[in-house]
Amino acid sequence: MKRMLGTISLMIALVAALVAGLSVTSSQADTHQRWTPPPKTIVAVEGNKANGFTIHHYDGSTLFPPTGSEAFAECGAYDDRIKVVRCRTEARVWYRELGKLKRSLRYAWSVSMAT
To answer: Is 0.90 surpassed by the pTM of this model?
Structure first.
């Protein structure tokens, strides 16, 4: 009797392990499905400060910020000196960060292609 109970409990344990293994495998398959980013995710940045940047989004839309000289010219339209300085600083930071983003995306693409 003890031997029969031991065999039954072993069979139950094996079936439970098999079911658990199948559920783990199916959950791993779900996590390996292709992840799609939000539509406005920036996927590429082209250009430079002097000639202008082009920003490409995942949904296919693009942005064309003004060139550095255009942005600084627009900043000169303010009457208040503080607003002019603030605008120029924001433009300078904007173009610096676009350059960094461009380099970061280039690096991310190179790493993803290497794996």
So the answer is: no
